[in-house]
UniProtKB/TrEMBL annotation:
It is found in: Cell membrane. It comes from Nocardiopsis ansamitocini. One of its GO terms (cellular component) is plasma membrane. It is a peripheral membrane protein. GO terms for biological process: iron ion transport. This is ABC transporter ATP-binding protein. Keywords: ATP-binding, Cell membrane, Ion transport, Iron, Iron transport, Membrane, Nucleotide-binding, Transport.
Amino acid sequence: MTTAHSLLVEELTLGYKDRAVIDSLDLAIPAGQITAIVGANACGKSTLLRSMSRLLAPRSGRVLLDGKEVHRLPSKQVARTLGLLPQSPIAPEGITVSNLVGRGRHPHQKMLSRWSKEDDEAVAAALEATRTVELADRPVDELSGGQRQRVWIAMALAQRTDLLLLDEPTTFLDVNHQVEVLDLLTDLNHSSGTTIVLVLHDLNLAARYADHLIALASGRLHAAGPPEEVLVPETVHAVFGLHSQVITDPTSGKPLMLPIGRHHNAVGAGR
């Protein structure tokens, strides 16, 4: 089992140039659980993940990793504890799948140290888990979008961190592979106790797979808690401007959001 690390956000304000994106945000990431961050486009989901992983310095406030400000810690020390899969990663031209996945091992290697058996095992396990073994010798730039996304996830898994942040990890994947990836992350959480934070656009997949939901609206925290407390019609309307019904998913027992558009029967909207 992994070590339970704490990740806290206190009075965090983030932005780019003159534009504020996150405003005075406070939240705690539950250790050992899967947390999904949801919200409308441009509400600050990806910006928040970038700051939690030390890539974006706050204008004010702080991110605390085990009680220490993450932006004051050495980058390699953070990378041994916390891994990030960004939204649109770029691979070096011509790099093969196995070499890219192997880069996930860099934080664990000391200067002048040799590639170890543990490194080999981590890469092999990551390729196997993401079903990319057969792609190991292929250049990444020759892969389809879905294959490429699975390879990036393999690199994140090879890093073997106790905290894993993923920004829209199901992008470019068809529904079958979306479910496969989320099942894989759930397996990792259940078997190793890895704390997982992911940004998802699909509210119903977020509610099905997450233990904890965070709903952002206009850079502020609108709601946080178990899916059955957060995914309610009032929150859907406040965060997305969408009328909906929420029922119990007959498969998972989690809340299931049914959107109500202008061309659908609006009976029950807001209930």
